Amino acid sequence: MKKFLRNLFSGYFLVILLLLIELAVIVVLQFWLDNLLEALLGEQSNLVKPLLVVAYIVIRIIVFIVAFVIFFKIIRKMEDPEFKIPWIVGMLLLPFLTSVLYLIFGNHGLRKRDKRVILATREAEKKHFKMDDGDREKLGNAYGTFHYVHKTTGMGIHNGNKLTYYKNGEAFFPALMEGLRSAKEFIFIEFFIITDGKLWSEVTEILKEKAAQGVDIRIVYDDMGCGGTIASNTPKILGKYGIKCAKFHPFRPILSGAYNNRDHRKIVVIDHKMAFTGGINLADEYANLIVRFGYWKDTMVKIEGSAINNLIMTFLQNYNLAVNHISDYEKFLSYEYEKYDEEGFVMPFGDGPGGIDDALVGEQNYINMLNYAKERVYISTPYLIPTYSLLDALRNAALRGVEVNLIVPGIPDKKLVYLIAKSHFRYLLDAGVNIYIYKPGFNHEKSMLSDSTLGFVGTINFDFRSLVHHFECGTLIYNNPCLKDLKEDFKEMLAVSEKVPEDYKLGKWSIRLCSFLKLFTALL
């Protein structure tokens, strides 16, 4: 019986079952259509049937040609097999449905119109951002991590910057409001989610006041991320007060892979005085003013100094994509910043869907940081559905003797996604990765610390959407004093987390469900 059940749920059986279902559907439709035609047309139905057969054959030929073209487009793409194989299997089994899904979700690169803006951004970066050869010695083993990000994004590396680490929304939002009130020249705001509530009301009142004083205010937010959270006519409402506001990739009911490329960044730049970035969106739950999924844990950093230019450039890129216009970069980047008496280096950067060089910068940055570690790594991520390369890097770090501590939510926001995340536990535990469940609630932060000297705070989740499809951002930090605060925060999180036991196992049916769902994680 056990052998029969194993065969029953094997891959061969499922393929045969799908083919039989398709055949049964064709037979049932044919029988139903014959009866319907006879009921409607009587004897004349015999004249219509040949025409329908011809139409059916023509449609099947068109579907086959489309599927054939898409199939070879998938094969030609220079990307990991984990992206290709699900599409190929889908094209073989259900070519019409898979073709439609591919047209919507298959593109995780850039549109031609977007590339024009990003190429202009790269030209501006070449003038303002360079890596000094003298940095190699100062960065030591971290040089490669920073050099990779510079080569793939064009962003610069900066020293003499002051960083402030905020371990939760309760600490961040008062600093944000104070910074907004101090603005005299410009305010740039970019969020994936903005939600009506106490915080957004306070921000809009400050922005109206600042706009009346002549401050240049520009806002870009993700249209799908803010679907139903703020009024759809928000750009028009804010425009009445002189505030420039745009939706990123507005959703329209047409087939376009661009709608799969969301703006997941969180950036606020105020004059040339300060910039904020990290994982916190502009919504009340991020400051725990309202309760959703227990205690909401998230982080931000404030940057003061020349690294602000990286975030100005990162913001302007997506703002320009949203308004389809190239801003005057020189106006904002030509500025002499104060040098702070703080050690270390900082490098904010933006990642995108394939960028210009088809590089998955966020994924490789995490891998580089894991490879950098010799003693200990701390990681916090709300979602654990990584690419195979990233999953393997986690295992390899643990297998070579690095203490890898991975923190995931105790109260997830998406239960099915969390179940898939748990399906990776056994694979990681076998390599010696320590996995912790954050008991107070939902740790939404995306941060990492390697050997107490190399840190990252950003928006990039350990999932396909962040690593492959979205526009993201993050900040690499080396030997800056704020890393002590990041390390202390990780220790505080571990103190209220529960370690996953070494003998952890998912139930058999959960394993089977996750195995099926994983077919689609690389697709969407």
Query: Segments where pLDDT lies below 50 for 5+ residues?
Result: none
Class computed from helices, strands and strand pairing: alpha/beta
Could you tell me the strand content as a percent range?
15-25%
Number of strands: 20
Sheet with the most strands, sense and barrel status: 9 strands, mixed
Strand order of the largest sheet: 1-10-19-17-16-11-13-14-20
* Count of alpha/pi helices: 20
How far apart the termini lie comes to 37 Å
Tell me the radius of gyration. Answer: 26 Å
So what's the overall shape?
globular
Could you describe the 3D structure shown?
Strands 1-10-19-17-16-11-13-14-20 form a nine-stranded mixed beta sheet, with helices on both faces. It has a seven-stranded mixed beta sheet with strand order 2-9-7-6-3-4-5, sandwiched between helices. The model has no long low-confidence stretch (mean pLDDT 86). It contains 20 helices and 20 strands. With 524 residues, it is of the alpha/beta class. The longest helix is centred in the first third of the chain and has 32 residues. It is globular and about 90 Å long.
What does this entry show, briefly?
By secondary structure, the protein is an alpha/beta fold.
List keywords for this structure.
20 helices, alpha/beta, 524 residues, nine-stranded mixed sheet
